[in-house]
Recover the amino acids of this structure.
């Protein structure tokens, strides 16, 4: 698996993408979560034969400050929708020392996992249809 950031989802990445089995999309700048749907669609077009994952930061590492809960909710809700549609193979939550310092985004995510973690999901798409 390779990590690809939203800013790297460009045609010139094709040669690198061809060398890996799976991709995980991460959004470094929280402001870019506004474009998460468009960025994910661009990755699907760039790598239609690869299982995709969504990486979710629970902290704003770009600005070194807590991630607003609304942005956490956006990425998790989109990821959940894509899981149910079979568009992604999974979601990855970055586990760092920040998970036990009382961040609202972490608390919200824990609660979401408690409520949704056992929900059945369809098998992810594994390649072109």
């Amino acid at each position: 698996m390779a990590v690809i950031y939203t800013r790297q989802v460009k045609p010139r990445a094709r040669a690198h993408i061809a060398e890996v089995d799976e991709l995980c999309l991460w959004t470094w700048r929280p402001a870019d979560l506004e474009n998460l749907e468009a960025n994910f669609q661009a990755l699907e077009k760039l790598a239609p034969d690869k299982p995709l994952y969504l990486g979710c930061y629970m902290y704003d590492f770009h600005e070194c400050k807590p991630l607003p809960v609304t942005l956490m909710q956006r990425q998790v809700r989109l990821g959940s929708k894509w899981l149910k549609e079979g568009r992604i193979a999974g979601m990855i939550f970055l586990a760092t020392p920040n998970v036990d310092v009382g961040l609202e985004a972490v608390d919200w995510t824990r609660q979401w996992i408690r409520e949704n973690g056992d929900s059945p999901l369809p098998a992810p798409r594994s390649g072109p249809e």
